Amino acid sequence: MFCNVTAEIEPAAGDTDSGGPIPSAQQVVDLLVDLLDLEPIEQNIFRGVSPKVSMQRVFGGQVAGQALVAAGRTVGPDRAVHSLHSYFIRMGDPAVPIVYTVDRIRDGHSFSVRRVTAIQHGQAIFTLSASFQLVQSGIDHQPAMPDVPGPESLPTLAERYIGFEELAGHLNRIPQALDVRYVDDPPWVQRGLGPRESQPHRIWLRINGTLPDDPLVHVCAATFASDLNLLDSLLIRHGLAFRLDPISMASLDHAMWFHRQFRADEWFLYSMESPSASGGRGMATGQIFSRDGRLVVSVAQEGMIRLPNA
Predict the structure, then answer these.
(1) Which of 37, 114, 153, 197 is 20 to 30 Å from 97 by CA-CA measure?
(2) Active-site residue identified among 184, 227, 232, 265
(3) In the annotation, is 227 catalytic?
(4) Domains assigned to the chain
């Protein structure tokens, strides 16, 4: 299982704590691109690493993004990923590399299917199945994009943390790979207002720099980002906030459907909602819209949510 926390992609702490140079936002984004790049060590076998940050677990979006890179490396460039389904099996160890093995399940006339297993210490920690498709034409429809203020009119994440500086970590000292703008108040501001009926929780999001033009890089960056705030929609329904309330929380599974092409370094709106929670688990769904109103990705996730004495 993987901790659902905001992942900081940053250089080693000594580079800033010792008064050394602080990287630019683009340099931090380049570190994210490097993180999603994998070392091929044998046919259908790849190796990835975790960022040098003080995390007890591997961030779920990281291993999902890396696994999708591994799958995509075994498929021709004429086929784009259209769906993935994954399970978080064991807690990942950020101190050691992750080995990704790819099974080439099928290569048909239009679709290719891959199954990826992430391995640490001789055990599977994560599995992913992904399907890729040749570009084809067909019928087209989608829901309307929510009517929300534009990202430039909304507070930055650093401004949202004013009064909650203990939650911000390195945010005010080190540029982040993701620019996040909350349309609705974040969980730490809405804390104590639940329980209540379901309502959308919406954020604008983009990679805070320029990514390479490779479409696989953009879908893997979006996969990385999609795990960051999804379970917040569940917490908000109950007036809870991670790190302020004694909650144990981890992603259990994660599914995504990629409907239309997009760039992850341009603004997209992530609209999330939680339809149900029971038995120590909670369900969250999300829709990702490009700024011009196209529905580009649908997301679903179940997470472990545990409270003391619950």
Answers:
(1) 114
(2) 227
(3) yes
(4) 2-135+151-306 (2.40.160.210)
| Cα(202)–Cα(200) distance, integer angstroms | 6
Per residue in 64-77, is it b (16+ CB within 10 Å) or e — as a string? bbbbbbbbbbbbee
Percent of the chain with pLDDT over 70: 90
Tokens in use for 213? Answer: 């033009």
Catalytic residue among 62, 251, 274, 287: 251
- Asked about 15 being catalytic, the answer comes back as no
Instruction: Express each pLDDT in 125-167 by its tens digit.
Output: 999 999 999 999 999 999 999 999 999 999 999 899 988 888 8
- What are the structure tokens assigned to 279, written together? 């038995």
Please list, residue by residue across 10-49, b when 16 or more beta carbons sit within 10 angstroms of its beta carbon and e when fewer do: bbeeeebeeeeeebebeebbbbbbebbebeeeeeeebbbb
Q: Which two tokens stand for residue 306?
A: 């545990």
Looking at residue 14, its pLDDT comes to 42
In the three-class reduction of DSSP (H, G, I as helix; E, B as strand; rest coil), residue 81 is classed as strand
Phi, psi (5° rounding) for residue 72?
A: -65, -30
In the numeric block, the tokens 């930055």 are attached to 156
Give the chain's mean pLDDT: 89
CA distance 201 to 234: 9
Q: Of the ranges 14-18, 90-94, 167-171, 248-252, which one carries the lowest mean pLDDT score?
A: 14-18
Q: Above 60 in pLDDT, residue 42?
A: yes
Active site residue 301: yes
More confident residue, 193 or 181: 181
